[in-house]
DNA sequence: GGGTCTTGAATACGTCGTACTTCATGGGTT
DNA sequence: AACCCATGAAGTACGACGTATTCAAGACCC
């Protein structure tokens, strides 16, 4: 029985969950060379395991492996910042607020357009799901139920992005989820959500249901603008 | 020995460049199981090499490796569609026009916002680069110089995305480049670029230089709208 | 008899250790 | 300065064993 607590995945996954965050956090500055033998000893695993982990890191453009040199850490500008794992690691790391801001800007660009498309393509089932979660947000918007509120909030945006019918938008729901949970856990947990935001969500659901694309887009733009304003208040 | 011609990278990279496109093209439908030993024999490489390639494929969520069952191809909805390599493979595959459309929609959401931000954050050097490429587009917009035009077009959008100051936007320049090159190579190569689009680029460069964010955003929105309309005309 | 549970063998991935190959790099030679 | 060679670390290969997961045969209960 392993008391590692790091889950029961393979060894390479454990190495990855250790090296990835370390690199994205800046523990190994760009240009640092990591030798596979050295890593194998440090993690008490075979070189094979290290190599597989390094391959994944390499596919994220976090490192570059070159003969006779070693595994060198690449500069942050080259990282695959859209990889969900990289996003997670950076969000857990040092400059999470900077990362949160970048992602919120991305949201503010994408979500309004996605909502507009959703108004044109959403199925009745998706519309029902949308109003359901909007009502769930209303029901949990008062009285320290932030966790329950968050669930509905995330689900709402996930449905919107999915209903847009664009796969690139749909795959961003994980990013939005990360931003929303990060936002919630970063706030002091004693303030209820902004009532105006709750109302906006209800109205977005309605606009999408009635096929009013322009209205859905404009309302979502208000939501994301609110999210950005919120960041400006709580930003370090 | 090897007359593969597939470049001088490592063996795992060669396996990847063969398996990746095959999967994204749908040659191995979701649910297909690939055994490592079988792959090792098919590619005449050791299981180690196959395992490293599979790790990368797994990190792209193209496949899932489970004990006692094998490497199973995952459904397309779970693929990491933001991975540049996945984008490239899909763009080279069967439904490239569908992919092109998805990416163009993404562009139309992101680029206008990025241009607006660029108007606020662009450095003088970036402004110079911008006007330089805009003029380059003008110079190459007539007389079958599509390749030269494309270089300036790609560079223009790369600078805009970079100048936005948002790393998530900046990293999308590869995607835009893929879309633009795909668009050009997909068209009949005998039609010069739309003069209106060229003018718009010049005006965007000017708007960013003068710090007129709203104008830069609106003009870029016109550019992306034009790109979408262009797709509707040439779509199969 | 039909259905559920237990048990055990088969199997394909996971990990390991070792030996060998391949070249970028750096230094020494001409 | 041009060239060549020794070096070192990643790349590849192979064989062995570990381990979880599946599937089916058989025991057991209803």
Could you tell me the CATH topology label of the largest domain in chain A.
Answer: Four Helix Bundle (Hemerythrin (Met), subunit A)
User: How much helicity do the residues of chain A have?
Assistant: 55-70%
Biggest sheet of chain A, open or closed, and with what strands and sense?
3 strands, antiparallel
Question: Which architecture of the largest domain in chain A would the CATH scheme give at its second level?
Answer: Up-down Bundle
* Helix/sheet category of chain A: mainly alpha
What overall form of chain A do the CA principal axes indicate? elongated
- The ordered string of helix (H) and strand (E) elements of chain A is HEHHEEHHHHHHHH
Low-confidence stretches of chain A: 1-5
- Beta-strand content bin of chain A: under 5%
Specify the number of helices of chain A. 11
Counted beta strands of chain A: 3
Q: Class of the largest domain in chain A, according to the CATH hierarchy?
A: Mainly Alpha
CATH homolog superfamily of the largest domain in chain A: GntR ligand-binding domain-like
Strand order, sheet with most strands of chain A: 1-3-2
Question: How would you describe the oligomerization state of the chains in this entry?
Answer: homodimer
Radius of gyration of chain A: 21 Å
The largest interface is:
A-B, 33 and 33 residues
The total domain count of chain A is 2
Global mean pLDDT of chain A: 92
């Amino acid at each position: 029985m392993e008391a590692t607590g790091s889950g029961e995945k393979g060894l390479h996954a454990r190495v990855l969950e250790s090296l990835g965050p370390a690199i994205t956090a800046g523990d190994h500055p760009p240009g640092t060379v990591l030798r596979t033998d050295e890593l194998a000893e440090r993690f008490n695993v075979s070189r094979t395991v290290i190599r597989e982990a390094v391959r994944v890191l390499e596919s994220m453009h976090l490192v570059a492996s070159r003969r006779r040199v070693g595994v060198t850490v690449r500069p942050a500008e080259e990282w695959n910042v859209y990889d969900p794992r990289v996003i997670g690691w950076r969000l857990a790391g040092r400059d999470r607020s900077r990362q949160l801001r970048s992602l919120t800007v991305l949201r503010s660009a994408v979500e309004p357009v996605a909502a507009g498309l959703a108004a044109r393509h959403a199925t009745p089932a998706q519309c029902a799901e949308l109003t359901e979660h909007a009502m769930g947000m209303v029901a949990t918007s008062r009285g320290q139920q932030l966790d329950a509120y968050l669930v509905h909030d995330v689900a709402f945006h996930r449905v919107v992005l999915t209903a847009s019918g664009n796969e690139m938008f749909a795959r961003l729901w994980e990013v939005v989820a990360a931003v929303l949970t990060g936002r919630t856990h970063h706030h002091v947990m004693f303030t209820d959500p902004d009532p105006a935001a709750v109302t906006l969500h209800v109205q977005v659901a309605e606009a999408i249901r009635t096929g009013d694309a322009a209205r859905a887009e404009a309302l979502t733009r208000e939501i994301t603008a609110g999210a950005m304003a919120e960041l400006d208040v709580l930003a370090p």
